[in-house]
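Input record (one chain):
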Amino acid sequence: MSRRPADTADMWDKAALETQRIVSYFLLIVFAPVIYALFYWRYQFSAHELSEVRRRYREIRQQHPGAMLLCTNHLTLIDSIVQGAILNSMGGYLMHVSALPWNLPEFKNFNHSFIWRLTCYLGRCIPVTRGASREESQRAQDKMRYVLERGDIISIFPEGKRSRSGRVDDNDYSYASGALLRMVPDATVLCVYLRGMKFGGFADWPNRSERFFVDLEVIKPKSALKGLRETRDLATQIVSQLKTMEDRFFASPLAAR
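The corresponding structure, as predicted from the sequence alone:
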């Protein structure tokens, strides 16, 4: 991803993103109670020190109200949903329209089903396609830049895939987070380490009654390099921070619970 002038998103794409933003907000009133009910009662999920995590997240957003990259380790298919339900309350999302992050799912992972396409639309997703043409890739990048520069949040998994080992993969990872940061260098990077404390590890779905640990850390990656080397350097700093947070978790008594 290269740096481009700020006003790059097509007029129709901007209008579509604004419509999606508004529609997702109003339908959140309908669907959020269902999601939270499934999270807390149907699957009996919980979070370690939930009130403190949410207080810390609110504090970070107040201190850094502009563009933000939410960079999280990736273990299950529903990490984005779990993260969203933990970081903020239903009321918190309804009070602040920019609080609901945009997500960047792989197009082929949801295009096969109308229900999944609808879910991704309502969940503020900007689809990305591996191996897309230059024009398609640039169009997606312009959309990402637009939502960031209007002060919204983009949630991204810096590893680029779920870690089969169950640990942050700091050897083989995507440079996409670094590329996004190059496009909007003033964006705040909030690293989120998320892990189930009972079962944890790689899985399609968390086990019922899982209790999640969440750690938050704001960083400001900088690089004196240029081009792809800068992109790689920025991405490496983000993944390294997640690895540090993971090491901290496993060195704590919480990991033994």
